[in-house]
Amino acid sequence: MRITCPHCGARDAQEFSYLGDARPRRPAGDDLTAMVDYVHARENPAGPLPEYWYHGAGCRAWLVVTRDTRNHAISAVALAADARRAGEAA
């Protein structure tokens, strides 16, 4: 699998570290039940999924990679900071 880093171009996936699903948001406050669900209760959808990837062997940028979990096809890559700003504006 190759991931196209916005800074470095197309690179092998071995240069990156996978963090996980980029959709969940940390719950505000000190609600223990919400925090337990946030940490432990995750979906495992089939299809396109935004995921966090870290380019540790390159520019050290955090990316949001939209990857189809059925066939690993990548449809989009964005810097995590840009994706976060776009999501907050929507």
Quick description:
With 90 residues, the chain is of the alpha+beta class. The protein is 21% helix and 37% strand.
Task: Explain what the structure shows.
By secondary structure, the protein is α+β, with helices and mostly antiparallel strands. The chain has one domain: Folate-binding superfamily (Folate-binding fold). It contains 2 helices and 6 strands, in the order βββαβββα. A 4-stranded antiparallel β-sheet has the order 3-4-5-6. The chain has a two-stranded antiparallel sheet with strand order 1-2. The longest helix is centred in the last third of the chain and has 10 residues, at 80-89. It is globular, with a radius of gyration of 14 Å.
Topology of this structure?
Layout: E1 2-5, E2 9-12, E3 17-21, H1 32-40, E4 48-54, E5 62-68, E6 74-79, H2 80-89
Per CATH, the class reads: Alpha Beta
**CATH topology annotation:** Folate-binding fold
Work out the helicity level: 10-25%
> What's the CATH H-level homologous superfamily?
Folate-binding superfamily
Order of helices and strands: EEEHEEEH
Total of helices: 2
Number of strands: 6
- C-alpha geometry: globular
How are strands sequenced across the largest beta sheet? 3-4-5-6
Q: How would you describe the oligomerization state of the chains in this entry? A: single chain
Major β-sheet, in short? Answer: 4 strands, antiparallel
Runs with pLDDT <50, length 5+?
A: none
**What amount of the residues lies in strands?**
35-45%
Distance between the termini: 31 Å
The residue-averaged pLDDT reads 92
Radius of gyration: 14 Å
Task: Write the CATH architecture name.
Answer: 2-Layer Sandwich
Would you tell me the structural class of the helices and strands? Answer: alpha+beta
